[in-house]
Amino acid sequence: MSLENIQYETIMHEYNRRQIRNRRTLEERRKQVYRQIPRLKEIQDDIASLSARRVHSLLLEKRAESASAYEKKLANLAQERLRLLKEHGFEPDYLEMPYVCPLCKDTGYDNRGKCACFQKLAADLFCTQYGLGQILEKENFELFSFSCYSDKIKDGNTGKTPLEHAQFAVEKAWEFIRQFNQTAPNLFIYGDTGVGKTYLSHCIAREILKKAYGVLYFPSYDLFDLLAKETFSKEPGGQGTMEYVLNCDLLILDDLGTEMTNAFVSSQLFLIVNERMLREKSTIVSTNLSLEAFPGLYSTRTFSRIIQNYKFINLIGEDIRLL
């Protein structure tokens, strides 16, 4: 899902809106402060005049001592401005441009290329393809119910009921959310069809989005199909999806195992798991596969990475959708 022209334009239009909003906010602040502290308007005018004269001195007169005198006056004016702002209860940067993202100054690009905020906007845009925003209004922790999980039957392997498994899963999900911006945690959620794996992933996604991080959601089949089309396409510029897959704050890879598994899929899954681990990016994988079947379908190498770096959550029980 490399950015199409219209998608790129949508993101850049958002940056343009931010810049306009920032300028309006700054102008309103200046009017407010200048009415309350007229001296600050005089200081601002003096700073603008002295700055111009300083440049003129350097370019035409080439006198370092003259420029130094201007710098001293400018420093004194700056100190007076800070003092007046503080005395009247304003923050020191109140008259500076109020950027949403100070790293790129709301341009979308920093000195390394695309800014992290650009990646988040792109991830948010991609999520709309699957209607994730609407889904999260219906599938979240506020609406989560343990009543769908039985407390009567027990798992033959663990001796725990589906309810106990679900309670453990929710506990680990909240632990994941709390640790998200500290340790880049990963989750591997597995179990039969319809036991709530995708629902739990959506619950987590909503909480992470509320923290203003970028979440990229893909059904496994769609992601690998898209990567294959881009990889083997002869169209120029059609290989941008992996960039977002590897760099988004949280990647949710849902229903792993539903795609047509082959050498390409296996290699791409290893790349995603390994590279996101190295970049300290969080990933949630959900699958209907058993732990025993996973290495045979993909690779022992991939499963080894997952075992070492993911926390496992097993959900069991009847198909909630039928209930």
- State the order of secondary-structure elements, H for helix, E for strand: HHHEEHHHEHEHHEHEHHE
How confident overall, as mean pLDDT? 86
Principal-axes geometry comes out as elongated
Main beta-sheet annotation: 5 strands, parallel
In helices, the fraction of residues equals: 55-70%
Concise summary:
With 323 residues, the chain is an alpha/beta fold.
Which terms summarize this structure?
323 residues; two-stranded antiparallel sheet; 57% helix; 10% strand
Task: Walk me through what this model shows.
This protein is of the alpha/beta class and 323 residues long. Helices cover 57% and strands 10% of the residues. Strands 4-5-6-3-7 form a five-stranded parallel beta sheet, with helices on both faces. The protein has a two-stranded antiparallel ribbon with strand order 1-2. A hairpin with a 2-residue loop joins strand 1 and strand 2 (113-114). Helix 2 (38-61) packs antiparallel against helix 3 (64-87).
